[in-house]
Design brief:
Layout (H helix, E strand, L loop, with lengths): L9 E2 L2 E2 L8 H11 L1 H5 L21 H8 L8 E5 L5 E4 L5 E4 L22 E7 L13 E7 L3 E5 L2 E9 L12 H5 L14 E9 L2 E5 L11 H5 L4 E5 L9 H11 L3 E5 L17 H5 L4 E3 L4 E4 L1 H5 L4 E4 L8
Amino acid sequence: MDKKDLKPTLLDGKKGDLAPGLSRRSFFMAAGAAGVGGAASLLKPTQAQAQSTDWTQPGNNNHVIDLQNAGSFPDGAVGIDFYGHCALKITSPGGATVMFDPWRDDPSGAWGLWFKQKFPETVADITMSTHTHFDHDAIDRPVSTMVLDRMVGTFEFADLKITGFADKHACVAPGWYQWTDALAEFGVNACPPNNVGHMDMVTYVIETGGIRTLIWGDNRPDPGPGFWDAIGQVDVLTLPVDGSQHILSYDQGNAIIDRLKPKVVIPTHYLSETTTYTLSTLQPADEWVKGQKSYQMLDSASLQLDAASVTGMDREFLYFGHNAQTS
């Protein structure tokens, strides 16, 4: 929504007043830093209604019904399509698709313009989000039959098994831009145990085609008790490290890799010329990638991985760079 389109809220034909001393601009700034719910508490109590728009999506669930009724599924490669930032679509050998962390610009405007276009209305059977920050939670954009937002526990469908592990967002910015300071300015805690709710995280392990993929999201570098044992062996690891070290520092990212020893590492949460503006303060991940013992600069936004070839890899970096799906 463009800022110039903002209009007074009307409830029962009356103008919705903001709390005394609170401008509309400061309300949206508070919404961006403290979470919309936190800023909304500054308003006078009023009755509000929400209307889902999911019913307007094109298509239907025929593909899900076909998968549901399938008696068996083929062996084969796992597909990974990169949509920029942390957005990835995984396709199982049987054709089931899962989209993770579709992005959008901050609706409050407080964090500026990050993305060059709206997230594409790509088709996926399942859409999932790791947490409620704007650059991970545009779950209305993919055309999907199922939305499993911040799911904890195990979900099995077709030839997919997805397990969600609850943890916490990184709460201390390791890079030059101290974005976590904004939360303190609005009187909320970024770090556990009393962190504000939007700093809660879920990481996901996806098992399909004989490959276990860990979607790290913006998870903290030092997860809580039992996390590492619960995750177990990892074949493919996505990790949010960029040149500005916005979420994880190079050292933190390397330490996680040394701990998990994945076969493949896919960098995420970095500046892509295809999708992301420099106003995000992010930078490309080239420096970090090129400092690794083995890496490949991919020439497209799509990747096919089969269990046999992955088994022979050892912490191989597969970097999408500025390649990203746009439809």
